[in-house]
Each structure stands twice: as C-alpha cells, then as structure tokens.
Amino acid sequence: MTRYPEIQFESKEAIKSFQEEKLKIALKYLSENSKFYQKMFVEHRIDINGINTLLDLQKIPVTTKQDLQLYNADFICVPKDEIIDYVTTSGTLGEPVTFVLTDKDLDRLSYNEFLSFSTTGCTREDVLQLMTTIDRRFMAGLAYFMGARELGMGVARVGNGMPELQWDTIGRINSNCGMIVPSFLMKLIDFAEKNGIDYNNSTLQKCICIGEALRTPDTFELNTLGKKIHEKWPNMKLYSTYASTEMQSSFTDCEHFCGGHLQPELIIVEFLDDNNQPVPEGEPGEVTITNLGVTGMPLLRFKTGDVCYHYTDSCKCGRNTTRLSSILGRKGQMIKFKGTTLYPPALFDILDNIQDIHNYVVEVYTNDLGTDEILVRLSSSLQTKEFEKSVKDLFRSKVRVAPTIRFESAEYISKVQQPPTSRKLVKFIDLR
Fold this sequence. Notes:
Helix content: 25-40%
CATH architecture of the largest domain: 3-Layer(aba) Sandwich
Shape: globular
Strand content: 15-25%
Structural class: alpha/beta
C-alpha cells in the first residue's frame, strides 16, 4: 500500500477529500470481490458510482455482527491460497467470528501499529515489553510485534501474566515501554512492593494500554483505575489505544491525552444512533467503521457495538483527525436497571474505587418480571452487613441504583475472571 502518514496533519478538507478517493477504491473492490456486498448492492439497488462523498455512505445499509456470524464466508474476498493468517474475534457479544488476512493485510496491520506507536511518541530507541498474548488466534498481539519491528523498537515477547517474569525481563533488558492491560499494572505494583522492587525508579516509564479505560469519556481525566496507577506510579505515562479485529486498525492517544486519533489512510469512522443516523459531537454514538486497504475481509459501515463520544476540533499535537473518547460501553451490554441506563464500565469505576475490594465480577440476568437485575460478586476481607451497605450506598450516590452484593472467595473470583479459553480478563457476565 502507498503510505501517507502526513495526511493526519493536513487540513480537515484535505483529509475528507483523501478519504473519499480511498472510499471509491474500497467500494469498487467490494463490488468485484465480496459475495456479501455484491448481494447487498443488488438487493438495495445501490450504484456505487453514486457514492462519492463520506455523506453518501448513509445510502448504504449498515453491516452488523449478526451478518458476520451468519454469512462469515461470504465476506472473504480472496482465494484460499492467498490467506496467510487466520484470527478470531474475542466473542464478547456472541460466538467468535473468523477473519482472514492476506500478505497485504499483514503489511497494513504492521503499518497501523507503526502509526499507533509513533502517535504515542515511541521511537526506535525504545524497548517494548509485550505483556499481551501473541497466540490464541489473537490479532492484536501479532500486530503489536510487527508494528514495533517496523518502527525499529526492540521487543520482549513476555506474554500476559507472570509478574515475576515481567520484572525479571525489565531488569535484564531495561525495557522502557509496556504493552499491557492496565489493571495488570496494579498486579506488577503489588508484586514489586512485596518483593522490594523500586518500580518508580525502574526503566519502565510508559505503557500503551488496551482493553480497559483509563480516562473519563467526557473530560479525559484519569478515571478510578487510572488514578490508582498514577498515585502509586507517578512517573508512569499511560496511553490508551482502542481497536478491534474487525477494524484492523486503531485509535491511539497522543501526548495530549484527549482521545484516540483516527488514521485516515486506514479507516473511515461514523458515529450512529439506534436508527443508524449520525449523532452530533457531544452525544454518544456507536462506532461504525469502513475499512480502507483491506483485501482479505474488508467491511463496509460495520457497527462495532462500541459506544463513545467523538471530537473533531484540531489537537495541540497538530493532527486534524477525528478523535474518540474512551468507550462508554458496548451496545449489547447496555443495562436497564430500575429505570436507569448503565454500561459495565460505570460499574467497574465504582468498584475499582473501593479500597477493601480485592476483585469482583458483575453479572446481569433477567428476573421473574422480565427486567434486568445486577449481581456483583466480590471478594473482600470485610464481609459484613455494614460493608455491604456502604458499597450499595456508594452505588446509589454515583448511579442512583444499587445492585445485589454477594461475597465470594478471592480464588473463586479469579477463576471466573480467567476462564481457560479467554484472551481477556472477564469482569462482566451477561446471562440475559
């Protein structure tokens, strides 16, 4: 692919024009190679020659996760002998979906992470400690390695977990940047404190974080988890990056920490309401993406299920690209509880702020009346009625409603949080 990293610093008009030219190429490719979109274009009488602007995208129906599950093979645009890598989605909202990548897609994926690392200020002088899995059909772990390699960074592929090995690696190779799920930083801190490791004076000084929010969606201030890490490890710079298998690209913080930047070469993004209409800035919308430059399994107007805010003003870093807030929640995980609409991250932020809770998992199920109920299973050394009441009171003060609380052992919660087949820490279980 032709690379044009400077486009993100050009004017908004130039970025829009650039993306519209890329869109025409993407539509032509889909009309020639994708069984799914060929059928869609015929059924909805869509003439792709009439789709010339980003606004014209609204003439095309959205693609959903259900479409991917029901017609998975129809999205593949290349013969089998051109497929290099097979990956699956994490299956957060249902059965995992298989994705295929060609040699060109892998180059594109590498370039995306090169851009992502560059956005955080990483250079070839940095040494990255990869604290996420690179196996288990996980696209992101491979992408991180390839992007770091393209940038010229040294990489230590430690994988997830294993605090002792993580600290041993930091001590051996002086890695200064981590790729990590942020809650694992708290486990690194805990291990360091118990074993006399001066983590604030270690070489590890910045982390690029996945999977969990570090900042509030509206003000970009550190949330509870972010504050906990910062209070313990003030020297640590915490960057967030947001991506998904379907996107095959990412949105990453710059040094001003005001939302993840769009890479205009790789993806078009829309923010839609329940009726698939664009939402204005300042209102939550579902992240809806169109891949640019993907050859194996490109998607058009795919609704990711993730809800966030977006911002279009220019950033102090000089980029003029759209920025995404941290994710408010997933559309399929929205909870209607006693007249209040909630997303799991809001519940996590409350629980993370309670010092005497060791670990927890949130369950949602349908009660006898057909409405949502929330059960919080937690482990704590204070398993008393008074502590339970204080937890509920905190929920009422923050979100106006209180869930059912059930005390469990720390071992039980850890087992629930880390099922053998999961690539991510499970803190939310939807039983509806």
